[in-house]
Amino acid sequence: MSLMAPKAKKEAPAPPKAEAKAKVLKAKEAVLKGVHSHKTKNIRTSPTFQQPKTLQPTDPRKTAPRRNKLDHYTTESAMKKIEDNSTLVFIVDIKANKHQIKQADIDGAKGNALIQPDGEKAYVHLAANYDILDVANKAGII
After folding, report:
1. Could you tell me if 91 and 120 are in contact, meaning their C-beta atoms sit under 8 angstroms apart?
2. CB contact at 8 A, 136 and 88
């Protein structure tokens, strides 16, 4: 066990006498006058505590950029449907119906929906005047 000499504490430099005297007089005046202000209490209306959100975080919450999840959907069978049948396959919300799917900005000749346990797929057959590969490329599927 090594014995070390205790470190001397660094004291703040003493303020000039005029400043110190003014500070003491101000404190004396405050004691004589008294404190008459009332600090307003923050009223909590909810039993759950809300953690305050920081507006300028020191570091981002997500450090790594998001990877492309579209590769998961460009399977061989989906590519075969695109090339052979000029059909695009989209995964849509499970509660979306055919009318809502048709309202999307797709000028399709025909469309059908397939509901599976993992989600709903919308098959959109494009009109003949569209180049299917060009549309799929713009949509980011290919």
Report:
1. yes
2. yes
Residue 101's CB is within 10 A of a number of other CB atoms, namely 20
pLDDT over 80 at 104, yes or no = no
**N residues, the chain:** 142
Give the pLDDT band of residue 25 (cuts 50, 70, 90): very high
- For 107, the token pair is 């000028």
Domain count, the chain: 1
Q: How many CB atoms lie within 10 A of CB 100?
A: 13
Flag whether 131 is in a domain. Answer: yes
Cβ proximity of 126 and 87 under 8 Å: yes
To 5 degrees, how large is the angle CA 119–CA 121–CA 122?
A: 150
User: What is the pLDDT of the chain when averaged over all its residues?
Assistant: 79
Over residues 39-93, the pLDDT tens digits come to: 888 888 999 988 888 788 888 777 788 776 666 667 788 788 888 888 888 888 8
CATH number at residue 101: 3.30.70.330
Would you tell me how many other CB atoms lie within 10 Å of the CB of residue 136?
A: 20
